[in-house]
Design brief:
The two termini are 23 Å apart. The protein is α+β, with helices and mostly antiparallel strands. It is globular and about 40 Å long. The chain has four helices and seven strands; from the N terminus they run E-H-H-E-E-E-H-E-H-E-E.
Length: 154
């Protein structure tokens, strides 16, 4: 894994680099573009946590976490986790995704959380293997047609 990976807040200085980030063409139907994520972050201030993933000053990915959302809308199940993960086409397989998940886990722990929730498109072309290899387990739930998985943060 690259050793200089770090997160940057999205600012006017890196906005164009962030929205220019592209996943592989065969993955475009699996994840929304960064510009949509930033619009959602604008609509959900205090909940959404968008970050550019950089390696030696180059944008290699984007993540957006969420914190303390009312998962069921009943006021009884608040969750934090990974909302969006886009790794640039040429950067996949280098540990950038693992870095992103660890960064979100660290932020959830820093805020007092003990579990990281995420969703993924089911099927052979989806990222299920990636998440399972990191220790996520499917909860049996779906959200928007996606599989819900959780990682316990011991």
């Amino acid at each position: 894994m690259p050793t200089s990976l770090h997160l940057q807040e999205i600012t006017p200085d890196n906005f164009e680099r962030a929205i220019g980030l592209r996943v592989r063409p065969d993955q475009e139907q699996l994840v929304d573009p960064v510009v949509k994520s930033l619009a959602e972050a604008y609509l959900h201030p205090g909940v959404a946590w968008p970050r550019l993933i950089c390696d030696d000053g180059e944008a290699v990915g984007f993540l957006m976490a969420f914190f303390d959302i009312d998962w069921t809308g009943k006021g009884t199940d608040f969750r934090s986790g990974l909302w969006r993960l886009n790794i640039a086409a040429g950067e996949q397989g280098r540990g950038v995704g693992r870095f992103a998940v660890r960064a979100v886990a660290d932020e959830i722990r820093r805020r007092g959380g003990t579990r990281l929730t995420t969703t993924w498109h089911p099927g052979a072309d989806g990222p299920m293997g990636f998440y399972l290899a990191l220790g996520f387990r499917p909860t049996g739930e779906t959200s928007g047609g996606q599989t819900v998985g959780v990682l316990e943060l011991g």
